[in-house]
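Q: Is it fine to ask for two folds in a single conversation?
A: Yes, each is treated on its own. Send the first.
Q: Here.
A: Result:
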Amino acid sequence: MAENSVEKGPWKETLDSFVQYVALNPKEFLFYVFLIMTPLMAISGYLSLKLAKHIEKNEKEKKKKATRQSNMAKARRRAKAD
């Protein structure tokens, strides 16, 4: 009875037809899901790899910079001591 009082909008009808399609054609639905998701997952993996390499590069640069600064500080201390 409460369902009759709710107005069926275009979204509700579309959702109902979609659910009906999925229920009647599960293999075809899964095929389309995998067809759409496969390239997206490949792009995601590529971008993750690229990000990991970028992070490693930045960490190496920070480590080099810290080593360089510590060596410069040691050289200054030696120069003051002389």
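Q: Second one now.
A: Result:
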Amino acid sequence: MDETEAMVAIDHEKSSVCVLDASTYVGFWVLKKLLAEGYRVHAAVQKNGEKDILMKVMDLEKIEDRLKTFSVDMLDYHSILVALKGCAALFCCLDNADGYDDKVVDLEVRGVINAVEACGQTDTIDKIIFSSSLTAAIWRENICSQKDVDERSWSDSEFCKKKKLWYALAKTLSEKAAWALAMDRMLNMVSVNAGLVLGPAVAQQNPQVTMAYLQGAAQMFESGVLAFVDVEFLADVHFRAFEDQSTSGRYFCFNQIVSTEEEAVKLAKSLSPLLSLPPRYKCEDSEAYAERLRNNKLNKLVEGTTAY
């Protein structure tokens, strides 16, 4: 290790970052990644978080001296400020473990506004890594008529309301609110727009969010915008988006677009028992749909690494 690397390593050890909410499925994997990379982590959790993951966070705190947990209320701005104290970055990973409806949409947007505003009131936060969703970009009338869907695309909130796509609406409105406030407060922010998150025990630990994402799955599939991402890869992308000083804007994050019936059946099987196929279901694999999602920015960020 040369002198420059040694200095980076020293700073690396001294840095504290906050994961909010660390009791979400994605938040917990981001937390584990940050600890593995040597960071001190403030794990901000809500009382209504996913119970199995909350227990894992608490158990991890007992054996990991670089981890400290904070109980926050997303509608209590001051509780967020306490969790952020001394942190260089916020990883904002909000999901509602109980699922989504029109009321949850409003609560998530208000929580995001509080979190970003709190960042603006600290002297230490250098960057916000905002965990968003592809559903904030893919929903509109005639989505299959658009050739490319990339980071410039946004879901139509009125269309989401009309179709009662509450998860997509929450992610669209909360991400837009975060961007507007971050720019107003001159905060450095990057968003990671993830596909359907897959990973260990996801059906047990993230059931309601998974099903909320899959609302309208048939139309996503036929329109070439149904994609998934491995949670470990997703956590790595969050980490890279933080450490790479050149990152900016939005990053579409997925491992694969589901474009054939065979791939759709494989996805359904991976989410058992959340999704179930009819007995003796036989895959015809008759049609392949055009893939419309583009993630060129992500490819540059992870270039030279092996996808999970």
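Q: Anything structural to flag on that second result?
A: Two points. Residues 102-120 form the longest helix (19 residues). The mean pLDDT is 90.
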